[in-house]
Amino acid sequence: xxxxxxxxxxxxxxxxxxxxxxxxxxxxxxxxxxxxxxxxxxxxxxxxxxxxxxxxxxxxxxxxxxxxxxxxxxxxxxxxxxxxxxxxxxxxxxxxxxxxxxxxxxxxxxxxxx
Length: 114
What we know:
The chain is mainly alpha-helical. It is 77% helix and 4% strand. It has one domain.
């Protein structure tokens, strides 16, 4: 199994499986809370699942709030990066070119052009 790091993952499929499992555990925990069931390992796991969901929601909210500023910063710096790369030897090397294309694609995506 690939390592999953909170907020980032090496595999979207693994991330989706983990998130689905956490959601199920959290729902079960909430049902048990409603019915007055407390204690035991399922209670502790449920609390941890709910905390993970809350942390993910907070992380997503921060990212959404920062998105306009991130887009503006990327749009402002891209012309400078591209101008520098044009003056530099090897600017079209695979890694550099891929990074520029990735940034351009992110801008298009944020603008709804992709």
